[in-house]
Amino acid sequence: MWKQIDFHTHILPGMDDGSQNAEESFIMLEMMKAQGIDAIVASPHFYPGQNFEHFFEKRQRSIEEFLRVYSAEEHPKIYVGAEVAFFPGIGKSQNVKKLCILGTRYLLLEMPFERWSNEVVNEVLALKENDITPIIVHVERYTKFLKKKQLFHLINDGVFIQSNAAFFCDRKTQRKSLRMLRSGEIHLLGSDCHNTTERPPNLKGAMDVIFDRLGEAYLSEIQQISNDVLGKAMRLEEL
Predict the structure, then answer these.
(1) 8 Å CB contact between 66 and 28
(2) Per-residue pLDDT tens listing for the chain (239 residues)
(3) Are 28 and 220 in contact (CB under 8 A)?
(4) Distance between CA 220 and CA 210 in Å, rounded?
(5) Rounded CA gap, 22 and 218, in Å?
(6) How open is the CA angle 63-1-77, to the nearest 5 degrees?
(7) What is the C-alpha separation between 157 and 232, in angstroms, rounded?
(8) Residues 36 and 2: beta-carbon distance below 8 Å
(9) Spatial distance between the Cα atoms of 67 and 65, rounded to a whole number of angstroms
(10) Helix axes 203-214, 216-229, angle to 10 degrees
(11) Neighbours of 200 (CB within 10 A)
């Protein structure tokens, strides 16, 4: 069974519209374990206007609740970050560094759901100048808002792109997802799981599609990039 890293989850309890309690988080963990997922990035939402310190305090309480049901020996490895919604000035924000995946300078970035201006693209690139590497999450949700040349501009400057598993699993979008993966427009995968029913962990479904349609090499490449990004990241039990 393939082991991969789920780069986008809302598994921390009581943080946002994801898992509501430790018991739900436990079921999600068991589902991921059954799928052969090796590691998980916990990425609760952070929105502009939120108080940074309040967010960190809330996240710490959520981690402590999560640890009631988590077993480092039995469950996938956990890394902690945030899904940060884009805001003007993000490129120069010093506080944003604290929202990176802990132990790294990689930031999960949710982009605007409107036409991307050149100013928005330049703001993302400014994060690189601030020694932060953005990982743009669920790229499939932005395709109608961006130009291909904007996306490749970001990629060529070292920005990573994450796609949700559903993009590959849905027959309506499967051809497009595979085409984007082949052309280098997708580097990382995530389930973006929120619960055990409507938005459950489903990364294995995407891996199966990629393996069946494109072969082993593409999964190996995703796994290698994932491992490189998390090479120095801190595991949950190290916090």
Answers:
(1) no
(2) 557 899 999 999 999 999 999 999 999 999 999 999 999 999 999 999 999 999 999 999 999 999 999 999 999 999 999 999 999 999 999 899 999 999 999 999 999 999 999 999 999 999 999 999 999 999 999 999 999 999 999 999 999 999 999 999 999 999 999 999 999 999 999 999 999 999 999 999 999 999 999 999 999 999 999 999 999 999 998 88
(3) no
(4) 11
(5) 34
(6) 15
(7) 22
(8) yes
(9) 5
(10) 130
(11) 14
Is the separation of the CB atoms in 77 and 38 below 8 Å? Answer: yes
CB atoms within 10 A of CB 208: 16
The alpha helices in the chain, defined as continuous H runs, are 22-34, 52-66, 118-129, 148-156, 165-169, 174-182, 203-214, 216-229
Spatial contact of 186 and 177, defined as CB atoms under 8 Å apart: yes
Phi, psi dihedral angles at 74 (to 5 degrees): -100, -30
Tell which residue, 148, 138, 232, 154, has the closest CA to residue 188.
Answer: 138
